[in-house]
Structure formats: C-alpha cells, structure tokens
AMP-binding enzyme
Amino acid sequence: MNPIERGKITLDVWRARRAIRVEIEARQRRRLAEMLSFARRQSRFYKRHYADVPEVSTDLTQYPPVTKPMLMKHFDDVVTDTAITKAEIDAFVADETKIGERFLGTYPVWTTSGTTGEPGVFVQDETAWTIADVLGDRWIVPAMVSVSPLSRLFTQNLRTALVAVSGGHFAGAAGLEMMRRESALGARRLRLFSPKRPIGDLVSDLNQYQPAILGGYSTVLVELARAQQDGRLDISPALVTPTAEPISEAQKRILKRAFDCVVRELYGATEFIPIAVECERGNLHANTDWVVVEPVDEDYQRVEPGTPSDTVLITSLSNRVQPLVRYDLGDSITMYEERCPCGSAFPIMEVDGRQGDVLQFETDEGEEVPIFPLALSSVVEEVPGIHRTQIIRTAPTTLQVRFDVTPAATEEEVWKHIERELQSFLRTHGINHITIEAVSEPPQREERSGKFRHVWSELKK
C-alpha cells in the first residue's frame, strides 16, 4: 500500500472518532456490502457457501457462519490470491527464521491455537495490517497529550515492551518483529519479553529496559504491578495496555495504582486486531466502522443487548485476502445500547471467557512463584505432534495434562516430550517435585460455551 492510501485510511479512522451513530453505521453498511460482494466473487469457498443467499442481500442473518476448522479445511479456496496455498503457508510458519517476514514479500501471516483448541493460520492484506496498526491510536493517543504522559514517553525514548509468547508466528511476536525489521526506529524501540521466563528475570530485564509503553498478557501485567508495589520492579511507563486475556476493573485499578499512568485495555484476536479499545471512562468500545460484532447464542441466534452471548461472530471489513464473514470467534461478550459518558457513539461491550488461572507454586525455599496460563500452555503446544491440550492443577504438587496428537505422531513419544518440557520449564522457575500426569481423556469443551479452557486449578481458593 502506498503512503497516500495508508494516509486516507488513517484519516478516515480519526474522522470516525467523533462520528455520530448513524455515520458509524453508514461506514459499516458500505464496507459490509463491498466485502460481501468481493468475497462472493473472489473466494471459491464463499461463492459455494453463500450460493443460496440472494446476491444483493446484506442481511448477515441470511449468511451461514463459518468456523476456524472450516476455514482451515478449505484454506486454498477461502483465500483470494491464488499464489497462496496452505502447503506453502504451512512451510512458511514452520520456519522460525521467517518470523517477522511477509509471505511472498507481501502478506503478514499469524498463527493461533485459540480458545476453540483448533490451530489456525491467518493471512493479512495491507489494509488489514494498516487497520491493526492505527485503530487503537484514536482511543489512546488523546490520553497521552497531557504533560505527564508526554514527559514519560520522551524520557523513556518511546521504548515499547510487549510481554507475549515468542518462538512462533503469533500475532504479537510476529507483528512486533515485522515492525522491527521494517523500521529503523522500531528496531531500536520495540522489544519482546517472554512470559515463560521466571518472574524475577522478567522484572530484572524490564528494570534495565525502562519502557515508556508496556503491553501484553493481562495476568502477567497484574503480577508485574505487584512487583512494582513491593519495590522489586521500578519502571515509569506512560501507558500500560493489558490484552489477550480479560481483565477485571479491580485488576486495572491495581495497574493504575502501581504505575500511576494511563491504562487502556485492548480486546482483539489474531483474526482481527483490535476489535475493541477502552476509553477514558473505562468502557470497551467496539470498532464497528471496521468490524461487525454479533453476540449470539449456541444456535447462532443474536442475543439481546445486555445479555452475555455463548459466542461472538465477527466480520472483518478490512481483510480481502482471507475474508472473515460471520466467523465464530468463541468468546462470550455482552453488548450494550447505552451511550458512554465519554461521548463516543461506538457501542460499549464487555468480554468474558478467555482467561486461564494463574497457578501459584512454592519453590524449595518456600517462595510463592506465579506461573501464567498462556506461558504454561504454550510450553505444551510447542511440542511436535501436539494438536491441542489442557492443563489442570488437581493437587498442590500435581498437574494433569490432557492432549490430542496429530495423525503422524505417537502418544507415547509426545507424552515423554511433554513431561520433559514441562518439568524443565518449572525448574527454570525454581519449582521442583511436581508430579505431571497424563490423562486418558482428550481435551474437553465446556458444555455451555463449547470452548476449551487451556489452564485452570481445581484447588479451592
């Protein structure tokens, strides 16, 4: 995308910031009509999938939803650039030296296991990448123009720290690495910090780095706030952005007290970033000028405002290389009709349902050490042959592991690898004498939501 086109998109994003509801809805309707028409013309999959829907219809309830397994099964027919094939994409994401590179020199590619437990690969076009980069700014930048945030930003030389799992083509790590590769400023001012490292090492590294902006997994940021409060961590960010996991109002207050800075929650997914961003009044606003958000029940029927959904369907209005139309994201959300006191006409939403438990273990010295859910699950997910997994703490020193393997793998060999990697990971945190048990039953979906929880504790709190 040339700078002029990128500038037009960015300008439109900012113009919509103070738009009234009818103007936001008009943007959505226009982009939705264009996306539906494009997908039905250019994607062989959608052409078949929507064969019974009238050509001119923009009523999304007439369009059957799609799921991640469905899109992965028909990947070559879903994508609209015939130069992209699943075989070549799989080879690309299997190569860790390619992290941060563009597929075919053009397309960012991100992978996820997601809350449904199914692996996914998502290709972004330039418009989708631009939207991912600028949508959050219209909510966050205005909060940074006062004296204190600006002073901290420049004192810390605009350094950004992202706490996210590395070692794969995940959206956070791969997106950050791409910005580092493509910008000299990004290479100097962007750094990834792994939540799989011992908390003491993470604290030490952040003390040395002194970020102006700190973002990443909510559970990790809350633990870092506690380290800041007890004096182990000593940083002065201007902005903290919890994401990837839901965060409570009480936890956000902990972040604000500990860091005395602007805190803005980001809600998004690998498939679309960001779906919603927090305003100055503490409400998440859905970016409905660029994404359609449909809270639905287990039968894919829309639920009333104020009612928690069983899942949510999203339609991306930006990505035309791998269109997402009524895509089942798997999260439970609640949408509200009430107008936010901040004055924005963008709808308010709440999110529930993607957060695992932080597991607290004792070291041999009696110190309590937190182990974060995404860090723990990623240790198992990176084992060759793993399809999906669940980790359950059933006793103070016992972890049970449910897992499925790919057709080419054997359970015995995969299990040996899982046990070895988990024990090694826990030892790096000073945690020894943990029993790790294989469970015969495969990972189970929650009955109500149909989603997979990845990590949780059955111990009474």
Summary: The radius of gyration is 22 Å. The longest strand covers residues 386-395. Residues 3-352 form a domain with the Rossmann fold fold (CATH 3.40.50.12780). The chain has a mean pLDDT of 90.
